Please model this.
Amino acid sequence: MITGSLVALITPMSADGAVDTKKLDDLIEFHINEGTHGIVAVGTTGESSTLTPEEHANVIRQVVNTVKGRVPVIAGTGANATHEAIDLTRSAKDAGADACLLVTPYYNKPTQEGLFQHFKAIADAVDIPQILYNVPGRTACDMQNDTVVRLSTIKNIVGIKDATGNLERGEALIKALPDRFAVYSGDDPTAVSLMLLGGKGNISVTANVAPRAVAQAAEAALAGNADQAHAIDTTISSLHTNLFLESNPIPVKWACSQLGLCEEGIRLPLTPLSEQYHAAVRQALIEAGALLV
Model:
């Protein structure tokens, strides 16, 4: 089972929006050196929605090749067309990913039965560990706990990224699922609390700029050390908030550029962080110890 701090890695881009492969390699080494437990490539934070299929596959392949088995690599392969998700998942398996992360279909708003059949079809088609991803605030599609429990009976569906931020719902889900099935937080502000309730890790945006602190908080929470976990998390709590002042990954890409981890490149329809938020994000980086005054 994959556990701990799993960074939802940005896809670094140059000013013209081209994928910056050199910076991608540098980011991977940065995270491994800082103690990140796993890398999620080309998820929401990695701008999966604006990469071409070829770029999507190339980024996953590069991450796998650069990591060289040092930490698990989870590839974002979700789509709102089942056949497209199958193609992306098959490509990620061929590239050597350890698991795939599959978001609920966005925009077309399937029923709960449609969600079950969608994820079952992908699991049947591609024999690789698969992690469901429920983020109704972005997709307008909410996968109910009962549907997740149904899907947990499929052997290669092994977990879910719960980005609802609802701890009561998350706790109920953990209690309803078999021990082999992992619940990961997809909400940085509540991640430590969810792990203390039995969650297995945090698929984190904040880890892009504060990887060591996020990893240490996860380690403490998974060990049941609540006071230590919350104390560490408090040092980065302003990042959890200010990295969402505009749509993710706008603020975190700007923050990464301020740390010298990448250029400010981002693709339309996303635009660079509005100047009115620069001071707040910079202050959060300073408070977290990521940026020196």
Q: What stands out?
A: The first helix runs from residue 21 to 34. The chain has a mean pLDDT of 97. The CA atoms of residues 213 and 273 lie 24 Å apart.
